[in-house]
Amino acid sequence: MTEKKKALLLLSGGLDSTIALVMMKEHNIEVEAVHFTSLFCTCGGKGGGCGPASKVAEAAGIKLHIVGKGEDYLEVVKKPEHGRGSNMNMCIDCRIYAFRKAKELMKKIGASFIITGEVVDQRPMSQHKKTMLLIEKEAGLKDLVLRPLCALSMTETIPEKEGWVDRAKLKNISGRSRKEQLSFAEEKGVKDYSCPAGGCLLTDPQFARRIKDLLENKPEFDSKDVALLKYGRHFRLDKDTKLVVGRNKAENEVLEQFKPEKSYGLCLEDFNGPFSILAGSNAGKYIELAAGITARYGDVEDKSKKVRVSVKDLLTGNERIVEVMTAKDADFMGALL
Ligand code: SF4
Questions:
Q1: DSSP 3-state of 185
Q2: Where are the strands (E) in the chain, listed by range?
Q3: What is the mean pLDDT of the chain?
């Protein structure tokens, strides 16, 4: 009997990677899993982990490594070598990044190969056979990525050639339909999966507009800049200056925690309304406009009268009151991102 090998599974917690895990039970393989989180992930659970992936790993009794895509991932977001998809997603470079990180972990835990739940031709950018092979090659994992769901459509990998896994037990699924996966899941009683494809803000058109704007106006942006893009309405006032206006109480509370450089926090003195952040090197020039926009989104009863707005320097804590008219949509809507 062949020596038992260890493999590292890329586990999203979605249907396909869960099925890949279930399929590997039929082979003499020890599996550990890795789940990647990032600032752009929309399905992460509290504490930086991902609920669905943790649930799947726990149910299977396997060790789960949670790896956050760090500041180095932002460099990939800024300059992807293989281009972008329909929005700001750069799926090929993103997969190369993840595979490289997985390779490091694979070595660290003494695993011999990688397993993924990928299905050939399922996604437009990164899941064509040629691209899948390019990704594994660029990550230094040529022939070391086993894709149990579509292995029979792919070239034979080292784990198959070496007899670590039985190729006869692997599948030949392709395309976007999930029919085969769903019937396999039903047959095996697999229920605890979720978080399907699409939990990435880089594929979201509105978020993509914001990140594109950041890339154009602050190309050296960092994770704090990205975090701020997730909340509020964003207005580009000039190349160096932006206004972010909370859309509800929860967003106001989150925005109050941000303290970008050279920034002011604005809120209405006499009415309920948003918390706004005016940030950038020219922020001082736009205080009246920002106060007027803040009033526009507040519960101001009589818009023919001036409104008192508190303006706090978020660095020094100095606060003052300005009195402004509520801004008219025509005066600022062109700046909305
Ligand atoms: S959708 Fe987002 S997370 Fe998924 S591969 Fe593309 S860029 Fe990466």
A1: helix
A2: 5-10, 29-37, 64-68, 113-115, 145-146, 233-238, 241-245, 263-268, 276-280, 307-313, 319-324
A3: 93
10, 77, 86, 90: residue to mutate for ligand 1 pocket, most atoms within 8 A of CB: 90
CA atoms of 16 and 196, how far apart (whole Å): 9
Assess whether 149 and 293 both reside in one domain: no
**Residue 126's domain is classified under what CATH number?**
3.40.50.620
User: Is the Cβ atom of 89 under 6 angstroms away from ligand 1?
Assistant: yes
The residue out of 156, 173, 188 marking a domain boundary is: 188
Judgement on whether residues 34 and 118 belong to the same structural domain of the protein: yes
Residues 178 and 247 in one domain: no
Inter-CA distances, 279 with 244, 311, 314, Å: 8, 12, 10
Task: Give me the residues of the chain with pLDDT under 70, please.
Answer: 1-2, 43-50, 194-198
How many Å lie between the centroid of ligand 1 and the Cα of residue 116?
Answer: 15
Task: Judge if 184 and 244 occupy the same domain.
Answer: no
Give pLDDT tens digits for 147-198: 999 999 999 999 999 999 999 999 999 999 999 999 999 998 888 776 554 5
Confidence at residue 2, expressed as pLDDT on a 0 to 100 scale: 62
For residue 243, what are the domain limits?
231-335
Q: Report percent pLDDT > 90 for the chain.
A: 86
The model's pTM: 0.89
